[in-house]
Amino acid sequence: MTTTEAAEPSLPIKELPRSPRPNLGKLHAKPFPLTTYPLPPLIPHNPFSILHIAFTYIYQFIAPPSSHPKAPYQAYFSPETRSVHVTDESAIRALWESGFFGKGSLSRSEPSWLDREKRRRGLLANETSEEVTRQRRENRKKFKKDRARKEREAIEEKLKEEKRSKQSSGTATPTARARYEGVNGGPVESLAESIESLIVQEPADPPTPPPIVITQPNGAVEYHPSTAALSQAHNGAPEPTQQNMEPEAAPIKNQEHLQLTPSEAFFLAYGLGILEIRDPSTSRLISTPSLFNLFRQHSYFPLRQVSTLEPDDPFLLHYITYHHFRSLGWVVRPGIKFAVDWLLYLRGPVFSHAEFAVIVLPAYGHQYWRGSEALRRETEKRSRKTWWWLHCVNRVQSQVRKSLVLVYVEIPPPSALPPYSSRDDAPMDIGLFLKAYEVRELTLKRWIPNRERD
């Protein structure tokens, strides 16, 4: 053992608290933020299980428990962003974990700004979903660089081998270099230089010099790391300051809220009845009929009056499609990232990628829409799509391994819709209004010979 090895000190390293990894299957077990009360299982060889089932059924029939939360979740409508904001942290976690509703205003999808801020300040050791995605992209980029570097080294090694064989034999046998120059008419160095120009040369880490050991006259040994080692350690790890060594006294205020689309908000307010939406200026509760008309008005730009709303406004088409797939058990998320209206997940975005991409299109099959020439031209203009557009969208979905679904919403004539009013106290049967529409699905798939051949 040398003096240098014996003098290496053991510096204490303070590890950050790392919470256990969450169980996603248990965390997102409920498809909706509702509580269900199933009957106990039936055990054939146990007669007491029949009594247990009968008692539970009679008890729930006499005093049925509520499946809704004790207090409805509170939110407010933002006319500037045309969305609904939820600020209560417990409501945010409930809506995201049970159904994946909305997105964080400062995050890609899941509201994780507070965790990222704690990790940035050194108070949390777990990685967030955004950091995992960024690390995966960096690893993929590094892999491509290494692959290109190995290809360039293989070409250079092949050229050196051919040069050595030519010098040793002394014959004018045609080599791969000569064949390349004869076919392409250019030097083979240009190929290596072109590949080398695409590679970003990263400076290698300088070697760490050995530590300096000073022996005292009394036999004691002092350990002094070199200046280069101190500089490298300083650049590689953050300086342990008081901020990241000890937690701050003041708690971090969560500056993120949950942002819901009008279709998601109306499904929670009307379809499930667990969300109350208020006016931000007056804090007044907006009734369901008023909320229905409000979302329809804000689906146009500029805003329209209630009397000028049409049966094919964008909010109606998108909400009918959203309600249709939610009732079938799909997790529906906005699909603007892939140039579509909705994305359909089997369980949720934390489990797998979306399987289907949905585009909503109006269909005017009723005779009313062909009653006049002007009305026929207007409806054809709204529903007409070109083949170029269809192939472009389908190509995008095939590149990300998604199936394109065209959803045609059959638009009824205005006479088939129940009358509605802009007053808050005016009665309105929204269910009867939505039943007048029909939904048809058409799935498209791009046929690729290389993937579909036997």
Protein described:
- Its EC number is 4.6.1.16.
- This protein is α+β, with helices and mostly antiparallel strands and 454 residues long.
- The chain folds into four domains: 39-66; 69-111 and 257-286, MutS, DNA mismatch repair protein, domain I; 130-245, no CATH class; 305-452, Trna Endonuclease, Chain: A, domain 1, CATH 3.40.1350.10.
- Helix content is 41%, strand content 13%.
- It contains 17 helices and twelve strands.
- The protein has a five-stranded mixed β-sheet with strand order 3-6-2-1-7, covered by helices on one side. Strands 8-9-10-11-12 form a five-stranded mixed β-sheet. A two-stranded antiparallel sheet has the order 4-5.
- Helix 11 packs antiparallel against helix 12 (288-298).
Low-confidence stretches: 1-9, 212-234
Work out the strand percent. 5-15%
The CATH architecture of the largest domain can be named as 3-Layer(aba) Sandwich
What is the CA-atom radius of gyration, in angstroms?
33 Å
Q: What is the domain total for the residues?
A: 4
Helix segment tally: 17
Question: Helix share of residues?
Answer: 40-55%
- Quaternary arrangement of the chains shown? single chain
Strands side by side in the biggest sheet: 3-6-2-1-7
- The average pLDDT value, as a whole number, equals 81
Largest sheet: 5 strands, mixed
Tell me the number of strands: 12
| Distance between the first and last residues' Cα | 65 Å
The SSE order reads HHHEEHEHHHHEEHHEHEHHEEEHHEHEH
Indicate the structural class. alpha+beta
GO molecular function: nucleic acid binding; tRNA-intron lyase activity
Protein name: tRNA-splicing endonuclease subunit Sen2
Family: Belongs to the tRNA-intron endonuclease family.
EC number: 4.6.1.16
